[in-house]
Write a structure and sequence with these properties.
Elements lengths: L14 E5 L4 H12 L3 E6 L2 H13 L6 E4 L7 H14 L5 E4 L15 H27 L4 E6 L12 H21 L5 E7 L6 H6 L15 H8 L10 E3 L3
Parallel strand pairs: 1-2, 1-4, 2-3, 4-5, 5-6, 6-7
Helix pairs in contact: 1-2, 1-7, 3-4, 4-5
The chain binds NADP nicotinamide-adenine-dinucleotide phosphate.
């Protein structure tokens, strides 16, 4: 596991946006960031799940979070502009962006991959990540130091049979991380990195490997040190990297 012990006040006064905050890794990250002092903006498509996370953060005594309903499959540039305008008005800046939401699509050979599912996966896992990140850059520039974290995968580094659009979208995320990091190198307060969570006990993993025993997998909580490291000031100096949460 990534070896990092975060201090309790690591993210005090930071404003951090987490996509896919209602379930799985995004839910754990939102709660971990709040537990370290961050005001978390919970973005996702199922409001009831976001409300549960909101309540859990409040019960744990974390800073009051905010909810922004966002379906990244159908969202237009206008929706991302709306989000940026709301955040500008409410907070005036953004200190962190965790691009976490994603979908698996189907596991099937390229030869028989349904083009409509291909489009859906590329829309959510790649295009929407670009739209959102682009819209957030002006707000991230307002922070003293800011961190963008993209979510990669092992199949985004080495292609594997039947992973189709999911693998291709994650290769593209690795590329987007490198391109944006290079553009912002030495010219900005924003660092850009990706995390490969590794096999983690979530619904997505269970859908990909239905026969697997989930108890043998890392929990979402166990992989949080890497997320906290990249989001907080100890991650200064890490830029343009793709790190393994279970490395
Ligand atoms: N788990 C693993 O082993 C593993 C390994 C490598 C990489 N990853 C990556 O880690 C990230 C999180 O995955 P996970 O395992 O936590 O998956 P998950 O449990 O399926 O959670 C995915 C999250 O993304 C949200 N989401 C899906 N489609 C969306 C849309 N159209 N608009 C907005 N939000 C949407 C989901 O919202 P709803 O709950 O409302 O559906 C959910 O909150 C993904 O990028 C995944 O590719 C996971």
């Amino acid at each position: 596991m990534f070896d990092y012990q975060a201090p309790d006040n690591l993210l005090n006064d930071r404003i951090i946006l987490v996509t896919g905050a209602g379930a799985g890794i995004g839910r754990a990250a939102a709660k971990a960031f709040a537990a370290k002092g961050a005001t978390v903006i919970l973005a996702g498509r199922t409001v009831a799940k976001l409300e549960e996370v909101y309540d859990e953060i409040e019960e744990d005594g974390g800073p009051q979070p905010a909810i922004f309903p966002l379906n990244m499959e159908g969202a237009s540039a206008h929706d991302y502009e709306n989000l940026a305008a709301t955040l500008e008005k409410e907070f005036g800046r953004l200190d962190g962006l965790l691009n976490n939401a994603g979908i698996l699509g189907v596991r099937t050979p390229i030869e028989s991959y349904d083009p409509s599912i291909w489009d859906q996966v590329i829309q959510v896992n790649l295009n929407a990540q670009f739209y959102l990140t682009q819209a957030m850059i002006p707000l991230l520039r307002q922070a003293e130091e800011a961190s963008i974290v993209f979510t990669s995968s092992g199949v985004g580094r080495t292609g594997k049979a039947y992973w189709g659009a999911y693998a291709v979208s994650k290769f593209a995320i690795e590329g987007l991380t490198q391109v944006l990091a290079d553009e912002l190198e030495n010219t900005s307060n924003i660092r850009v990195n990706a995390i490969n969570p590794g096999a983690t006990r979530t619904n997505m993993r269970a859908n990909a490997y239905p026969a697997e025993d989930p108890n043998r997998l890392a929990t979402v909580e166990a992989i949080m040190p890497a997320y906290l490291y990249l989001m907080g000031p100890d991650g200064r100096g890490t830029h343009g990297q793709s790190i393994d949460a279970q490395g």
